[in-house]
Design goal:
The protein is α/β, with parallel strands linked by helices. The chain has two domains: 6-115, 3-Layer(aba) Sandwich (Rossmann fold), CATH 3.40.50.2300; 215-371, Heat Shock Protein 90 (2-Layer Sandwich), CATH 3.30.565.10. The chain starts with 5 loop residues before the first strand and ends in a 10-residue tail after the last strand. The longest helix is centred in the middle third of the chain and has 37 residues, at 120-156. It is built from eleven helices and twelve strands. Strand 3 (57-61), helix 4 and strand 4 form a beta-alpha-beta unit.
Length: 371
């Protein structure tokens, strides 16, 4: 279906009601706004249409034979279609417990079937506004992704290589000159920061790449964390690592590259928070039958409550330990977790250490991580 028009899919098993709604939405008044409405007589047909091409707004009946509205929402979540279509639940009068369940399942709004069709227009237009904001956000993120990829590739590739070679050549010329050797040392430190920044920009590009999150595979979190801890031990020999694994935690579905980067960045920050050594505690646990939590706790400098939201923003690097980061690591960690339907929680106070908790769904991304 051409995207020159705003698209609406009406899903209901009652032919008369379904046809009346479609006819109303396709009448001359809304058509002048660029609306095109079509119908599906059940959940199976609706899902097939969405797999062919996403619709802007879907009016979805809850109670249908076969695949009902809740089944459609679950299937859309599993196939990653909920973030493309604004779902408005059609509810019979007085059945609000179903409305609550559907909103938790990923629907964005609901309308009562007993309301005049004219009153539906505002909710449908709200769905189109949501789509416009989504498209703008996607465009901004795509531009940011391309910028991060190009800049990261440039400064981390050719630029870094040429500068490194020139510094090595200069170091031979200043051998024995204390001031010259000190200058080379400072330049090498700056080059190291440039390389880390380039690597972080590359990770930002991956985090913003919508295609990356589709590369699902079963991942054993304990094995992943064990390997990352080995790298951590090498860089932070003065930190004692305590591991508390819940052997009942099953594999999670996800992108290996993205989830490894989540825990790599969080472990790195924990190490920087303990420049003089300390204790790092890693813990995995089940939260319920669908969710797992990974806790990373340190005994470092801590983070004041007023900075808890700021640390995940691009550009934040105000670490009390004195470490100067790129301001991208925690943004990437949170973004990658959210790409998997999860969230990152922080518990910390200044001078009292920090615990970061990553909540992840075991299967395909859930709609609402547990609070």
């Amino acid at each position: 279906m051409s995207k020159e028009h705003k698209t609406i899919l009406v899903v209901d098993d009652e032919p008369f009601f379904r046809e009346e709604v479609v006819a109303f939405l396709n009448n001359p008044t809304p058509t002048t706004r660029g609306w095109v409405a079509e119908a599906a007589e059940g959940g199976e047909e609706a899902l097939a249409k969405l797999m062919q091409a996403p619709r802007d707004v879907m009016l979805l009946d809850i109670n249908m034979p076969g695949m009902d509205g809740m089944d459609v929402l679950r299937a859309m979540r599993e196939k990653h279609l909920l973030d493309q279509t604004y779902v408005i639940i059609l509810s019979a009068y007085g059945v609000y417990e179903n409305v609550v369940a559907s909103m938790r399942g990923g629907a964005k709004d609901f309308v009562n079937k007993s309301e005049p069709l004219e009153q539906w227009i505002m909710r449908i237009e709200r769905g189109f506004e949501w789509q416009e904001l989504r498209h703008r956000s996607q465009q901004t993120e795509e531009e940011l992704r391309l910028l991060a990829r190009e800049v990261g590739h440039d400064i981390g590739g050719t630029t870094y290589f040429v500068l490194t070679q020139r510094v090595q050549a200069l170091s031979k010329l200043v051998t024995g000159n204390a001031e010259g050797e000190r200058s080379i040392e400072v330049i090498e430190q700056i080059l190291g920061r440039i390389k880390r920044l380039a690597d972080d920009l590359g990770q930002v590009a991956v985090a913003l790449d919508s295609s990356e999150v589709w590369r699902w595979e079963p991942l054993n979190l304990q094995y992943m964390l064990e390997r990352l801890v080995q790298e951590f031990n090498f860089g932070h020999p003065d930190v004692t690592v305590v591991k508390e694994w819940d052997e009942n935690v099953p594999p999670v579905a996800g992108s290996r590259a993205q989830l490894e980067r989540v825990f790599h960045n969080l472990l790195s920050n924990a190490g920087w928070a303990m420049p003089d050594g300390g204790t790092l505690t890693l813990r995995t646990r089940m939260e319920d039958t669908r969710w797992v939590a990974v806790e990373i706790g340190d005994t470092g400098v801590g983070i004041p409550p007023e900075a808890h939201d700021k640390i995940f923003r691009i550009g934040f690097s105000d670490w009390k330990s004195g470490h100067k980061g790129s301001g991208l690591g925690l943004y990437v960690a949170r973004r990658n977790a959210e790409n998997h339907g999860g969230r990152v929680e922080i518990k910390s106070n200044a001078g009292q250490g920090t615990t970061v908790i990553v909540h992840l769904p075991i299967g395909p991304a859930e709609a609402s991580p547990p609070k």
